[in-house]
Amino acid sequence: MKWKIFALSLLLVAAPSAHAYLDPGSGSAILQGIIGALAAIGITLKLYWHRILRFLGIRKASNLQEDDETAKAPSTDTSQPGSSRD
Amino acid sequence: MKSRSYTPVHGSFRDPEGFMFERDGVLYRQVNRAGRESYRQLMDSGLYKSLRRSGLIIPHEEVDVPPAEPENAELVIAPERVPFMSWPFEWSFGQLKHAALTTLKIQRAAIDHGMILKDASAYNIQYHEGRALLIDTLSLGRYTEGQIWEGYRQFCQHFLAPLSVMARTDIRLGQLQRAFLDGIPLDLASRLLPRVTWFRPGMLMHLHLHARAQLAHAGSSDTGTGSGKSARPLSRTGLIGIVEGLQKLVASLDWEPAGTEWADYYQATNYSSDAFAAKSGVIDEFLDQIQPAQVWDLGANTGHFSRLASKRGIPTVAFDIDPAAVEVNFRQAKENNETGILPLVLDLTNPSPSIGWACRERDSIIRRGPTDCVMALALIHHLAISNNVPLVQAAEFFAGICANLIIEFVPKNDSQVQRLLRTRKDIFPHYDEAGFEHAFSEYFEIRQTRRVEGSERTLYWLQRRGDPGV
After folding, report:
1. B360-386: per-residue pLDDT in tens?
2. CA B260 to chain centre
3. Is the CB of B102 inside 8 Å of chain A's CB atoms?
4. Which of B288, B375, B395, B428 has the greatest number of beta carbons closer than 10 A?
């Protein structure tokens, strides 16, 4: 699965711009599928990685956010008015 | 031609689920039958309440008024009116970034409520009472697991591309948004960005490879994007991953306002602190008498004098040509949670035109007026001497955008004017107080005149004769 995605990514890099007529939606949609799949794999791997760390007692649950790269984005808790400030 | 009992709002015609219209000076949104499901889910899922609580969506009320087009209508809602609509190319870097993060935050909240932001137009975000919020209530629709984010391309064009080229290439490239109404084409952004950005995974995927993918698949319809179903279904986790990845990428983009012409203007000006205080005092006095409902401060710099108005609770738009000054102003307003001031980038010698379909989609600065009161402080010499605008034409322009004008006349013996004249021939024999008063009297009545103590400058309160003339 991962190799298939990798190969597809390579194809995209190498793809020539042969068409004159632009339908930008198609490329964006395909790319979104690929990035989404990669992101999902990343998130899943990280989840298991943290579970392993927690299982081994190396990391506590509350520290999970600290060096989780994908979760480093600004807070998405929309229940607090103050949280919408970036 | 069919006569209408309402005025459609220009720029609100693309979405089959509804549109904006105006009747008797009140702004409404008709929700079409096609938009019933989206609207009901927004209200019933708790998403609207959640977004309202965090100030991320414009408040609205369901109202019992006749719809504009009854044959399609489901219901009519009345959203709160944003006193001044601003366009993304008028925002500073920080404002565009804040709007981008607001869009992603809304998207993230929507997914949690089983909904999705269908599009991601920067024009759907407005600054209202100091906050960026979504004004298009019908942008939110049902989310079905597996579907793609149809607005992903739009997000990249409207937010990611301009922010990236502004941060990594040149801040002035933000003006490309004025030329490209649907955002900066990704292949153009990709070419403008330095090569080193190919090594940033986020920029590589969302901009460079995205641009390649668009070119490679131009014209193909194998993804069926129209239905929102991709040949490669996008999992919910994947969609969240994309949104959070974009949040991280946008948050990492930065630009520091420094080294532009006005960055240290207040330090460089020839105003002593006494004269500065005296000038503030006179403006306060004028504002007391005018009692304006709205103020535009033209040439506001970082908004020192704009705040004389905004601190009274008057919605104040603080325009300046310098993106650095506007950025500083915005950061200050944001830090202090100011609700009355809206800093914007505007070049008065080439102000925002009306753009888009039929030249009516996004109104020019003049069409968004006239306003109650314009302040033009330490500005006239830049128009008259740097840009050779005859004083009478400056007067005509101001008469077209305001009823009251607080304007500062800066004479030739002022060191700032001397600086402008040092490198060029003085071709302005009528640039003096008498010439100024003569020119402006054609359109305005001089209500009050005050010499600013400790300087050579004069402050005027002028009142327009009759209706806006332009």
Report:
1. 999 999 999 999 999 999 999 999 999
2. 21
3. yes
4. B375
